[in-house]
Known about the structure:
Elements: H1 2-24, H2 31-53, H3 56-64, H4 72-76, H5 80-113, H6 136-140, H7 149-153
Transmembrane segments: 6-23, 30-55, 75-97
Subcellular location: Cell membrane; Cell projection; Endomembrane system; Endosome, Multivesicular body lumen
Protein name: Lysosomal-associated transmembrane protein 4B
Amino acid sequence: ICIATAISLLMILICGMATYGAYKQHAAWIIPFFCYQIFDFALNTLVAISVVVYPNTVQDYLQQLPGTFPYKEDIMSTNNMCLVFAVLLFIGCILSFKAYLIGCVWNCYRYVSGRGTTEVLVYVTTNDTTVLLPPYEEAVAIPPKDPPPQYLEA
Length: 154
């Protein structure tokens, strides 16, 4: 119980640091949460690999479930390859969602860390400001290779 409590408190601290870092725009506070996400993704990937390498572990896990688990007999009676495919599909969905969340946190980190530099340009437009673009013909016109003769004389 002590280890579970310590891990839970650590997770609350890491999540709080990420929230504070995003709110106050301190990029260094987001890094521990990003590292945790990468570590969690790696562990889940190892679980998926272990299911592929040792497909009988799914059946062994099902046998260890208590007898009161709903539909335990129906699940155990299914084909082992079908069961492994269903587990891999479920883990694949979880991994893709975790990869999306990792991308979100990384984009947040990049935005916060690049906020003070010129790499991130923020354009604020209102009804009072208008950006005028040149006409299309002028923008795509290719200048001639040789200037006209009147420019050479001057």
